[in-house]
């Protein structure tokens, strides 16, 4: 399926949460929301009473390839209508007042939304208008609130940024990327034997050059060099370069 | 300290990571980056060779109150100059090639940046230009790469969104908000005794109305009602309302 802006297929719809924008004001933001949704694997967007009507061409520009989400969105007069088919609804809300409601961090909400998905139920997340946020009647239609832990001295969060954080947490909640790896591309991490072979080469040349002539200090100096090279993960390719460097420097000395 | 756009103090500078935008193209994005930084408690911004020069009035508009960050940013000709005073540098990079480098998720990078901060060292995070991203020479100046786990079918991530994710993870890495609470505002969670008192009232009225006249089914029906009210956390105020509802319904029945 190709969007009306020519955007390609950007992922499955599946049973991921619906994003509901309540009385959004700026078409730019609606497009940017669609882009953020695509980043986090959310594809179903519903608009409740957008201020300037719908469609708005500007939105397709800021969607930047996620126009398919805008093509498929649905328009609703009320929040009740937008959430009618859903089983579980969260409302994002920075500073709720006079509300009695469970409150989740974005991360905990994402875990909860994944659990709802796993049960085969449909969920949604409400985002309020740019300036005012959701009002008390909007929030009364949600099961729970989501509050992001962010700098309390600067609460002005752009609408698309708010969606980005939730979409990101939704994606990460099911992600299995190892937190930390070594990217080696064409090469691989050197074995200890390869590293030892290089150190032997280095030490031999340093002995030949006289660098290690202070015999009482020699073991400590060698240990320092070993610590340096054993500290991280050196690749096989880097070791070959280092062999070349040592040979070249030793050769340069001899020939100079 | 007040910004030139009248923005108020939005938090301490401290030892948080520096954000380095490498060859950024759009002033709008630079402003939106400042806003995202303020959201996540990052305050020091450096620009390397911005395409359209600097300053650009547009940036203060999209910064939306975070103008102080723009007022204080520094300009640099090269990445090397921008990171010269830093001890640890991460480079955000969606698809690195021909690079041998440690790679962190955003979350793991945030933990690492907090560890660097705790050691009293200064860190920075590089973000590349809007279309091309960082080139190999930029990345060679970083200690490690950061790759966000996000929808691989839609990699087009807005610059300010990329900064938002990292700023958010930075903030959350030191945040202690409980993942899930019940917001009660003016009231509080009811005690079990208060709940029991309400259930006694409800059952008495249901007995009086004849609703529980099927004696073999009565224990099961009461248990179902108990399960309903014991499921979540009911507040003291809600119980008072429910007492009123039961009394009114019973009274209405008697008077009708």
Main sheet: strands, sense, barrel of chain A: 7 strands, parallel
Can you list the strand order of the major beta sheet of chain A? 3-2-1-6-4-7-5
- Fraction in helix of chain A: 40-55%
Question: How far apart lie the N and C ends of chain A?
Answer: 68 Å
Helix-strand topology string of chain A: EHEHHEHEEHEHEHEHHH
Overall pLDDT metric of chain A: 90
- Structure annotation, total helices of chain A: 10
Radius of gyration of chain A: 29 Å
Query: What proportion strand of chain A?
Result: 5-15%
Most extensive interface: pair and counts?
A-B, 61 and 61 residues
Runs of chain A in which pLDDT lies below 50 for 5 or more consecutive residues are none
Structural class of chain A: alpha/beta
What is the tally of beta strands of chain A?
Answer: 8
> Based on the structure, what is the oligomeric state of the protein chains?
homodimer
Overall geometric form of chain A: elongated
Give structural notes.
2 copies of one chain form a homodimer. The termini of chain A are far apart. Chain A contains 10 helices and 8 strands. Chain A is elongated. In chain A, 45% of the residues lie in helices and 13% in strands. In chain A, α1 links the parallel β1 (18-22) and β2 (45-48). A 7-stranded parallel sheet of chain A has the order 3-2-1-6-4-7-5. The first copy, chain A, has helices spanning 27-39, 57-63, 67-72, 79-83, 106-118, 136-140, 159-172, 192-209, 218-231, 236-255, and strands spanning 18-22, 45-48, 74-76, 88-92, 101-104, 123-127, 144-146, 180-183. By secondary structure, chain A is α/β, with parallel strands linked by helices. In chain A, 38% of the residues are buried. At the A-B interface, α1, β5, α5, α7 and β8 of A face α1, β5, α5, α7 and β8 of B. β5 (101-104) of chain A pairs antiparallel with β8 (180-183) of chain B, so a sheet runs across the interface.
């Amino acid at each position: 399926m190709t969007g009306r802006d020519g955007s390609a297929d950007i992922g499955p719809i599946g049973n991921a949460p619906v994003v509901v924008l309540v009385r959004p004001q700026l078409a730019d933001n609606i497009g940017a929301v669609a882009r953020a949704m695509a980043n986090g694997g959310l594809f179903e967007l519903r608009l409740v009473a957008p201020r300037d009507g719908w469609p708005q061409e500007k939105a397709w520009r800021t969607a930047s390839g996620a126009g398919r989400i805008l093509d498929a969105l649905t328009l609703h007069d009320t929040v009740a209508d937008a959430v009618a088919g859903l089983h579980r609804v969260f409302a994002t809300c920075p500073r709720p007042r006079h509300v009695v409601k469970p409150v989740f961090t974005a991360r905990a909400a994402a875990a909860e939304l994944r659990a709802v998905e796993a049960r085969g139920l449909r969920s949604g997340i409400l985002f309020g208008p740019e300036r005012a946020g959701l009002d008390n009647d909007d929030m009364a239609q949600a099961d729970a609130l989501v509050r992001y832990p962010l700098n309390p001295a600067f609460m002005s969060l752009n609408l698309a940024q708010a969606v980005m954080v939730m979409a990101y947490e939704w994606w990460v909640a099911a992600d299995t990327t190892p937190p930390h790896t070594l990217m080696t591309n064409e090469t691989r991490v050197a074995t200890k034997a390869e590293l030892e072979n290089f150190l032997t080469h280095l030490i031999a040349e340093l002995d030949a050059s006289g660098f290690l002539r202070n015999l009482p200090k020699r073991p400590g100096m060698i240990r320092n060099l070993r610590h340096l090279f054993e500290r991280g993960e050196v690749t096989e390719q880097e070791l070959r370069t280092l062999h070349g460097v040592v040979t070249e420097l030793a050769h340069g000395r001899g020939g100079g």
